[in-house]
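Hello,

Our lab assistant flagged a job as stuck in the queue for most of the afternoon. It eventually completed. Since we weren't sure the result was trustworthy after the delay, we are filing this so someone can double-check. Below is the sequence as submitted and the structure that was eventually returned. Let us know if re-running is recommended.
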Amino acid sequence: MSSQVQWFALQVRYRQEFRVSEQLRERGIEEYTPFLISKRRWSDRTKDIRVPLFPGYTFVRIDRTSRLLPILTMPGVVHFVGENSPVEIPDEEIEQVRKAVSSGGMLWQYPKLSTGEIVDVTYGPLAGCKGRIEKVDDKAWSLVISITLLQRSLAVSVEPDWVQVVPRSKMPPAPVMRKGSSDVASRQSARASVS
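-- returned structure --
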């Protein structure tokens, strides 16, 4: 096994994403839990609350050979995502999520992977990202960025002139999925680039 520091996904208990993130930070472990600010309305007030972009998951950057057990024994942690052992998440996928979150564009959870064109973003705050494009209307498009291992995506608004279509010969292979599995980790049998 590699001793290189890599990103991994942790599955956590319901509504424990931020609590687990805080515990990881307190232990000096690099973590990332991207979130949206959502307005919640009650009868007497409206409040902004943080909502995880990937509910039930947080990301950690660790050396898999030295720090798994202390993380697995933390309250709220269910397991690392991976069929038989934790599966690494490419740095580029995490970096693209960070760029999308900090871009200032409208951001929302995207329910599934898109079947649209794969594009490179060549201009604007998302320059360097790659994803699938979804046309919203003639003036605004959304770029779908994925964490392939989790089979989860997010969408961020982009200007149509910021993107360039990736030729089909340079497109990454699609992930191979097993039929009939309900566990995110066991559904993943091949890793692919950002889709």
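-- support follow-up --
The delay was a queue issue, not a problem with the job. The result is valid. The chain has two domains: 5-89, 91-187. Residues 84 and 183 are 12 Å apart (CA to CA).
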